[in-house]
Amino acid sequence: MMDDVIYWIWLAEALGHGNYRVHDIIMDYENAENFYKVGETGWKKCEFLSAKEVNFLCKTPLTNAQKIIDRCKELSQKIVTIEDPTYPELLKNIDNPPAVLYIKGNIECLSNRLCISIVGTRSATLYGQKMAYKLGSGLAKAGVITVSGCALGIDCMAQRASLNAGGETIGVLGCGINTKYLSKNEDLRNKISQSGALISEYPPDTKSSPWHFPIRNRIISGLSKGTVIVEAGEKSGALITANLSLEQNRDVFAVPGNVDSKESMGTNNLIKDCAKLVTCVDDILEEYELLYDYQETKSISEDGLVTHNVKEETITKFTLPAYLSSEARKLFDALEDKPMSIDSLSELTLMPVSIILQAVTELEMDNLVKSFAGNRYGKANL
Predict the structure, then answer these.
(1) Nearest to 236 by CA among 222, 251, 257
(2) Which of 74, 96, 126 corresponds to the end of one domain?
(3) What is the domain range of residue 13?
(4) In terms of domains, do 157 and 241 share one?
(5) Residue 360: predicted pLDDT
(6) 8 Å CB contact between 224 and 115
(7) What CATH number has the domain bearing residue 330?
(8) In this predicted model, what pLDDT tens digit does every residue of 366-379 receive, in sequence order?
(9) 72-77 long-range CB contacts below 8 Å, 24 or more apart?
(10) Do 166 and 48 share a domain, yes or no?
């Protein structure tokens, strides 16, 4: 199996990421090594290859693939080909699965688990952030793995919520895993690799490019039984993921938004056309209750997870939930009974406004903060 890795990497690099030839090659040649060995003469006879693709195959040396393998060893990144038993079964069944996945973390957490992707706009409203956090947290407490793209806005809010609730999440990147992409989210990516996995079809050191992300989105939807769009404008990239989900015969969910909000135009249109309306986690989980055992919440345990019916008691004792992030705890300590502006809280905690807003959302989910007019916040009456 390991001997065949070099040939699958060579194939992916020669034909490009997102190509549709993987299933054809397995069908006609069983594996990439057999395909490689027939050479140019054999490739020219392949009915599914164009002359341009044959040219790419001829010009791509096998030594390039070996360099990628060596680089992965340096970075301790795992390589999983489509022939590997740990390759996700759902992803294998899409029309154009990646021949190779580069992984940091534990991809085996996907085995026999319900995976749901949560995606949306990077310019999320406070409402969108709250809903992403609510759904990410709720799915994690039910034992569901969330899948997303580690982007700013909806993606990172859902994934942070999953981690804060003690769950596992998968981050699918449109660049090499070791690439410095979105430095604001570097801490999130590190946490994901420790509890879940970072996945990319792009080898180490591959920089992100705009066209990588639409290609990447098929992996997000392909890993998941269903995709939830929280907020998306009329031309949002999240809608690409929704359409891919439909093409892959997967479920599509959407969170309704204000009809006057441009960030909700895409999601509202999805609900009109094909998506199931989602207002809470149960709207998602009920679709899979016959396939997966899940539990809406968990009792208080050593890992700090807490059921909804005991949150009031926990708050009464002034004990913060263990799954809250350090930023949320820091903000809670800074809050007063009287209203405080976002700028004042930022100055007081030395945290950026964007982090303050995320922390506020966390605290609101557990009724630990109350909001006032003018984007001002105070500590809830405990």
Answers:
(1) 257
(2) 74
(3) 2-74
(4) yes
(5) 87
(6) yes
(7) 1.10.10.10
(8) 788 888 877 788 88
(9) 72/102, 72/203, 72/204, 75/104, 75/177, 75/178, 75/204, 76/104, 77/102, 77/103, 77/104, 77/177, 77/178, 77/204
(10) no
Q: Distance (Å, rounded) from C-alpha 310 to C-alpha 187?
A: 31
**Last residue of one domain, picked from the residues 28, 49, 74:** 74
Tokens linked to 235: 């031309």
Does 298 map to a domain? no
Burial of 98 (0-12, 13-18, 19+ CB in 10 A): buried
Question: Closest Cα partner for 261 from 123, 368, 138, 154?
Answer: 123
Please give the DSSP secondary-structure letter assigned to residue 371: E
> Distance between CA 262 and CA 253 in Å, rounded?
18
**Whole-structure pTM value:** 0.79
Would you say residue 224 lies in a domain? Answer: yes
Q: Which two tokens stand for residue 132?
A: 């992403």
C-alpha to C-alpha distance for 171 and 104, rounded to whole angstroms = 10
Give the integer Cα–Cα distance in Å for 359 and 364. Answer: 9
The residue-averaged pLDDT of 349-359 equals: 85
Residues in CB range of 295: below 8 A, 6 or more apart: 141, 142, 143
Give the total number of structural domains in the chain. 3
Establish if 14 belongs to a structural domain: yes
